[in-house]
Design a protein that fits this description.
Bound molecules: adenosine-3',5'-cyclic-monophosphate
Helix content: 40-55%
Order of helices and strands: EHHEHHEHHEH
Strand content: 15-25%
Domain Nucleoside diphosphate kinase-like: 1-132
EC number: 2.7.4.6
Structural class: alpha+beta
Strand order of the largest sheet: 2-3-1-4
GO molecular function: ATP binding; metal ion binding; nucleoside diphosphate kinase activity
Number of strands: 4
Largest sheet: 4 strands, antiparallel
Radius of gyration: 14 Å
Keywords: ATP-binding, Cytoplasm, Kinase, Magnesium, Metal-binding, Nucleotide metabolism, Nucleotide-binding, Phosphoprotein, Transferase
Shape: globular
Distance between the termini: 20 Å
CATH superfamily: Nucleoside diphosphate kinase-like domain
Number of helices: 7
Catalytic activity: a 2'-deoxyribonucleoside 5'-diphosphate + ATP = a 2'-deoxyribonucleoside 5'-triphosphate + ADP; a ribonucleoside 5'-diphosphate + ATP = a ribonucleoside 5'-triphosphate + ADP
């Protein structure tokens, strides 16, 4: 079974969308194997987004992820990485299709409610980082 790391970011928590978001993964048949709330430190946020270091939106991204409570989850299932990313929708709100989490609820740059690992190597690295 494949595992992936999913975060409900501070805007998702603040807007009261935790239940709505988790429901969508569960309705698909994916399993929540671990779940916790975290107030990310700058160090954790920088490690999580290390591939974006140097990009013009990096500072805003770190500020965003450290601005409030985050729900971190390990989600498991067959092809969990791809399935979760399909449920989340495209990164940019204007590209995300209706029926996806971002398509239905995101309407602001950067503030896209959720994060999910993009491949097996990222999943392994991110699960270690958030669930030491
Ligand atoms: P996420 O899927 O967590 O991966 C990287 C995050 O950076 C992304 O969601 C967005 O929140 C943010 N992001 C990606 N591209 C841009 C961009 N061009 N401008 C601002 N923020 C971005």
């Amino acid at each position: 079974m494949e595992k992936t790391l999913v975060l409900i970011k501070p805007d998702g928590v603040e807007r009261g969308l935790i239940g709505e978001i988790i429901k969508r993964y569960e309705m698909k048949g994916l399993k929540i194997k671990a779940i916790k709330s975290v107030f990310p430190t700058r160090e954790l946020a920088e490690k999580h987004y290390e591939e974006h270091k140097g990009k013009e939106f990096f500072e805003e991204l770190i500020k965003y992820l450290t601005s409030g409570m985050v729900i971190a989850m390990i989600i498991e299932g067959e092809n969990a990485i791809k399935c979760v990313r399909n449920i989340n929708g495209e990164t940019k709100y204007q590209d995300a299709l209706p029926g996806t989490i971002r398509g239905d609820f995101a309407y602001k740059d950067t503030y896209n409610l959720v994060h999910a690992s993009d491949c097996k190597d990222s999943a392994e690295r991110e699960i270690k980082l958030w669930f030491e």
